[in-house]
Specification:
The complex is a heterodimer of chains A (265) and B (177). Chain A contains three helices and twelve strands, in the order H-H-H-E-E-E-E-E-E-E-E-E-E-E-E. In chain A, strand 3 and strand 4 form a beta hairpin. Chain B is mostly helical and 177 residues long. At the A-B interface, helix 1, helix 2 and strand 1 of A face helix 1, helix 3, helix 4 and helix 5 of B.
């Protein structure tokens, strides 16, 4: 019944269970750190090279659409120019008011630019990514991660010496205190198994509209106030009908992130 | 020399899985090269000779996966042992169409089993160790069907490479003797 092969298998399985027990207590961190230290240069090289190759193929495929896209961009540019003129005026007013109440300027975040070097794609969707900056670069657990334009994409969930793991806002374990910019309605943006994000815990008495902007509220610490998360999509009821909930449409394609910024302060 | 090539193959699988494939494929469709490797190694080398390689590949997979170190490896070893229990696998040779289809079916079944095992390990960790690790795999989707297909297709070149390495290993052993 217990052949040499079976005894070997049972011993290995038992040993691995012990490894899991030890790992959950954080003992695996040096091992992971060592593996990433050895492999991160290769991961980065492969990522950059394959990203370039993918970009090239995408470019080839999109040549036909370039004319339409160009027309769309010219139109969008004109709209943005007029919007910027209006915003400059608001900025002056904003700076003045911030000076008066001694509030730190929003642009004063200390950002650490990082390359995405790998993604955990063994599940249904990749909601965890690896970046090429770690403890030695001042990265700490819980720091918010944004992309250009101050758009929130996730937070740092695990830190190693030279690398760190970030959990995207669509990750099941992600939760961000959020606020609807237009109405001030508060809620929590939570991940939906890596497939999307939902704004939950919205009071039944509040009114939210599709297309409203959602920002981080800054409540509970962790995330500074005012980081753009996305726009409200479909509005519905929570499972227990006690709250409203809404899907969040991110303006960033989370599956094609290349460079992200970690907010260090 | 063949052992060095095997080591490089595992490293290449690790790099391809986590750094390259995600850029070219839609989320949820990315093949699991580690499962493809395990099936190939189980068929070509058998339990005794490739257990070490499977554990090494599993630990690399765990380093980047979201679960505790050892979780994916345990699922991979369980899968590896199960494949070895199926005696017909030992006689599998990719020379006939039927064998190729059978090989694809084994890889697809191995991936389904692996996903179930990983989910079970994650649930056990949550229950007994209090780790908040969630593994979600939607099996009723076109993405999952494509994932099975892509993994099966990816297993074929891995299998052929392993078969080549196996022959080299046999030659090296014969020369030593």
């Amino acid at each position: 019944m217990f052949s040499h092969k079976n005894i070997k298998f049972i011993s290995i399985a038992f040993l691995l269970i012990v490894v899991i027990f030890v790992s959950v207590r954080g003992a695996d961190n040096p091992v992971k750190s060592g593996i990433f230290w050895l492999t991160s240069p290769f991961l980065k090289t492969f990522r950059v090279f394959s990203g370039g190759l993918h970009g090239f193929f995408q470019f080839l495929g999109s040549i036909g659409d370039l004319k339409n896209e160009n027309e769309k961009l010219v139109k969008e540019n004109l709209e943005l120019v007029s919007e910027i003129a209006g915003l400059k005026d608001i900025k002056k007013e904003n700076d003045l008011l911030r000076q008066q109440i001694s509030l730190l300027s929003r642009g004063d975040h200390e950002l650490e630019a990082s390359f995405i070097i790998a993604e955990d794609n063994l599940g249904a969707a990749s909601s965890k990514l690896m970046i090429d900056k770690g403890r030695i670069n001042g990265i700490r657990e819980g720091m918010p991660v944004v992309v250009s334009g101050n758009i929130l994409v996730g937070k740092v969930s695990e830190v190693f010496n030279d690398t760190a793991r970030i959990s995207l806002i669509v990750d099941q374990d992600s939760a961000v205190n959020a606020e609807v910019l237009e109405s001030g309605v508060k809620g929590i943006v939570e991940g939906n198994y890596g497939l999307g994000a939902m704004m939950n815990m919205i009071s039944q008495t509040e009114v939210i509209k599709e297309g409203d902007s959602v920002i981080s509220s800054g409540l509970g610490g962790g995330f500074p106030r005012g980081i753009f998360i996305g726009k409200i999509g479909q509005v519905g009821q929570s499972g227990d009908k006690l709250f409203q909930q809404a899907s969040i449409i991110s303006s960033v394609d989370l599956s094609s992130l290349r460079v992200v910024f970690v907010i260090k302060n | 020399m063949a052992k060095a090539y095997l080591f490089l193959l595992i490293i290449l699988i690790f790099l391809m899985q986590f750094s390259v494939l995600g850029q070219f494929m839609e989320q949820g469709r990315v093949p699991n090269l580690f499962v493809a490797f395990t099936v190939g190694a189980a068929v070509i080398f058998g339990f005794e000779r490739s257990l070490g390689m499977t554990i090494f590949a599993g630990l690399l997979m765990d380093a980047l996966g979201g679960l505790a170190m050892g979780s994916g490896t345990l699922a991979l070893v369980l899968l590896f042992w199960t494949i070895n229990q199926i005696k017909s696998v030992a006689d599998l040779r990719l020379k006939r169409l039927f064998s190729v289809i059978l090989f694809f079916a084994i890889v697809a079944l191995a991936l389904i089993s692996f996903d179930i095992l990983v989910e079970a390990v994650a649930k056990a960790e949550k229950l007994f160790l209090g780790i908040n690790a969630t593994v979600y795999i939607n099996r009723m989707s076109i993405n999952y069907v494509l994932r099975l297909l892509y993994t099966s297709l990816a297993a074929l070149p891995i299998y052929l490479l392993l078969r080549r390495f196996s022959r080299s290993l046999q030659k090296e052993t014969a020369i030593k003797k």
